[in-house]
Amino acid sequence: MTLSLASTTTYQATDLARNHREVLERARHGGALIRDKDGTTLLIAPADDVVHDRQLAELAADFVRTLVALNQQTEQRSAASYGAFAWLTVFEDEYQREFLREIAEPLLVALAGGPTGPVTELIEDWRISATTYSDKELRHELTRSVPRPVYDVEL
User: Fold this and answer.
1) Residue 2: inside a domain, yes or no?
2) Is residue 5, in this structure, part of any structural domain at all?
3) CA 91 to CA 59: how far, in whole Å?
4) Global pTM value
5) Alpha carbons within 13 A on the beta-carbon side of 132
6) From the first residue on, what is the mean pLDDT of each consecutive set of 10 residues in the chain (155 residues)?
7) Is 153 a domain residue?
Protein backbone atom coordinates (compact mmCIF):
# COMPACT_ATOMS: atom_id res chain seq x y z
CA MET A 1 0.00 0.00 0.00
CA THR A 2 1.41 3.37 -0.93
CA LEU A 3 1.04 6.31 1.40
CA SER A 4 -1.61 8.81 0.43
CA LEU A 5 -1.43 12.14 2.18
CA ALA A 6 -3.64 14.13 -0.18
CA SER A 7 -6.61 14.32 2.18
CA THR A 8 -4.73 13.89 5.45
CA THR A 9 -5.55 16.16 8.34
CA THR A 10 -2.57 17.88 9.87
CA TYR A 11 -2.59 17.58 13.65
CA GLN A 12 -0.81 19.72 16.19
CA ALA A 13 1.70 18.15 18.56
CA THR A 14 -0.78 18.69 21.40
CA ASP A 15 -3.31 16.48 19.57
CA LEU A 16 -1.08 13.51 20.34
CA ALA A 17 -1.89 13.96 24.01
CA ARG A 18 -5.57 14.94 23.64
CA ASN A 19 -6.70 12.87 20.63
CA HIS A 20 -4.08 10.16 20.41
CA ARG A 21 -6.58 7.46 19.37
CA GLU A 22 -7.81 9.53 16.41
CA VAL A 23 -4.26 10.40 15.36
CA LEU A 24 -3.11 6.78 15.56
CA GLU A 25 -6.18 5.56 13.69
CA ARG A 26 -5.41 8.05 10.89
CA ALA A 27 -1.79 6.90 10.94
CA ARG A 28 -2.83 3.25 10.54
CA HIS A 29 -4.95 4.06 7.49
CA GLY A 30 -2.67 6.02 5.21
CA GLY A 31 -0.66 8.27 7.49
CA ALA A 32 -1.08 11.22 9.80
CA LEU A 33 0.77 14.51 9.68
CA ILE A 34 1.84 16.22 12.89
CA ARG A 35 3.04 19.82 12.90
CA ASP A 36 5.60 20.37 15.61
CA LYS A 37 5.91 23.66 17.50
CA ASP A 38 8.87 24.69 15.34
CA GLY A 39 6.80 24.24 12.16
CA THR A 40 8.33 20.91 11.11
CA THR A 41 5.75 18.52 9.69
CA LEU A 42 6.23 14.90 10.73
CA LEU A 43 4.66 11.76 9.31
CA ILE A 44 3.32 8.87 11.34
CA ALA A 45 2.53 5.86 9.14
CA PRO A 46 2.75 2.07 9.17
CA ALA A 47 6.42 1.15 8.80
CA ASP A 48 5.64 -1.51 6.17
CA ASP A 49 4.04 1.16 3.96
CA VAL A 50 7.05 3.47 4.28
CA VAL A 51 9.52 0.66 3.56
CA HIS A 52 7.43 -0.48 0.57
CA ASP A 53 7.30 3.02 -0.88
CA ARG A 54 11.04 3.56 -0.39
CA GLN A 55 11.84 0.26 -2.11
CA LEU A 56 9.65 1.23 -5.06
CA ALA A 57 11.29 4.65 -5.21
CA GLU A 58 14.72 2.97 -5.28
CA LEU A 59 13.60 0.66 -8.10
CA ALA A 60 12.28 3.65 -10.05
CA ALA A 61 15.59 5.47 -9.52
CA ASP A 62 17.51 2.39 -10.71
CA PHE A 63 15.26 2.25 -13.78
CA VAL A 64 16.18 5.86 -14.57
CA ARG A 65 19.89 5.23 -13.83
CA THR A 66 19.86 2.32 -16.26
CA LEU A 67 18.08 4.39 -18.90
CA VAL A 68 20.64 7.17 -18.51
CA ALA A 69 23.51 4.66 -18.66
CA LEU A 70 22.15 3.17 -21.87
CA ASN A 71 22.11 6.62 -23.46
CA GLN A 72 25.86 6.93 -22.85
CA GLN A 73 28.54 5.47 -25.05
CA THR A 74 29.40 1.90 -24.05
CA GLU A 75 32.95 2.81 -23.06
CA GLN A 76 31.68 5.59 -20.76
CA ARG A 77 29.47 3.24 -18.72
CA SER A 78 30.36 1.50 -15.51
CA ALA A 79 28.41 -1.18 -13.67
CA ALA A 80 27.89 1.33 -10.85
CA SER A 81 25.98 3.64 -13.18
CA TYR A 82 23.23 0.98 -13.34
CA GLY A 83 22.58 1.03 -9.59
CA ALA A 84 20.90 -2.17 -8.38
CA PHE A 85 20.61 -3.32 -11.99
CA ALA A 86 24.39 -3.62 -12.43
CA TRP A 87 23.92 -7.29 -13.32
CA LEU A 88 22.37 -6.12 -16.63
CA THR A 89 25.83 -5.20 -17.92
CA VAL A 90 26.45 -8.83 -18.96
CA PHE A 91 23.87 -8.33 -21.71
CA GLU A 92 24.19 -6.44 -24.97
CA ASP A 93 22.38 -3.09 -25.19
CA GLU A 94 19.47 -4.65 -27.07
CA TYR A 95 18.66 -6.98 -24.15
CA GLN A 96 19.14 -4.22 -21.59
CA ARG A 97 16.59 -2.10 -23.45
CA GLU A 98 14.25 -5.10 -23.60
CA PHE A 99 14.47 -5.38 -19.80
CA LEU A 100 13.53 -1.70 -19.44
CA ARG A 101 10.59 -2.14 -21.82
CA GLU A 102 9.36 -5.18 -19.89
CA ILE A 103 9.67 -3.65 -16.43
CA ALA A 104 8.26 -0.20 -17.24
CA GLU A 105 4.56 -1.05 -17.07
CA PRO A 106 4.62 -3.31 -13.98
CA LEU A 107 6.77 -0.73 -12.19
CA LEU A 108 4.32 2.07 -13.04
CA VAL A 109 1.42 -0.09 -11.82
CA ALA A 110 3.27 -0.79 -8.54
CA LEU A 111 4.10 2.91 -8.09
CA ALA A 112 0.39 3.68 -8.51
CA GLY A 113 -0.45 1.35 -5.62
CA GLY A 114 -0.76 -1.90 -7.54
CA PRO A 115 0.91 -5.21 -6.72
CA THR A 116 4.69 -5.40 -6.60
CA GLY A 117 4.85 -9.14 -7.26
CA PRO A 118 5.13 -8.80 -11.05
CA VAL A 119 8.06 -6.37 -10.66
CA THR A 120 10.01 -8.58 -8.27
CA GLU A 121 9.31 -11.71 -10.33
CA LEU A 122 10.48 -10.02 -13.52
CA ILE A 123 13.66 -8.74 -11.88
CA GLU A 124 14.40 -12.18 -10.43
CA ASP A 125 13.84 -13.87 -13.82
CA TRP A 126 16.17 -11.42 -15.55
CA ARG A 127 18.77 -11.72 -12.79
CA ILE A 128 18.78 -15.53 -13.17
CA SER A 129 19.13 -15.09 -16.94
CA ALA A 130 22.06 -12.72 -16.38
CA THR A 131 23.76 -15.28 -14.16
CA THR A 132 23.27 -17.95 -16.80
CA TYR A 133 24.36 -15.63 -19.61
CA SER A 134 27.54 -14.65 -17.78
CA ASP A 135 28.73 -18.29 -17.87
CA LYS A 136 30.39 -18.33 -21.32
CA GLU A 137 30.42 -22.11 -21.71
CA LEU A 138 26.79 -22.46 -20.73
CA ARG A 139 25.80 -19.53 -22.96
CA HIS A 140 27.59 -21.19 -25.88
CA GLU A 141 25.77 -24.47 -25.27
CA LEU A 142 22.39 -22.78 -25.00
CA THR A 143 22.80 -20.57 -28.06
CA ARG A 144 24.69 -22.81 -30.46
CA SER A 145 22.98 -24.07 -33.56
CA VAL A 146 21.82 -27.66 -33.53
CA PRO A 147 22.44 -29.23 -36.96
CA ARG A 148 19.25 -31.24 -36.93
CA PRO A 149 16.35 -31.66 -34.51
CA VAL A 150 16.60 -34.54 -32.10
CA TYR A 151 13.68 -36.98 -32.41
CA ASP A 152 12.69 -40.08 -30.51
CA VAL A 153 14.56 -39.19 -27.39
CA GLU A 154 13.60 -41.42 -24.52
CA LEU A 155 13.71 -39.89 -21.09
Assistant:
1) no
2) no
3) 19
4) 0.74
5) 11
6) 62 89 88 91 89 92 96 91 94 95 96 92 96 84 71 66
7) no
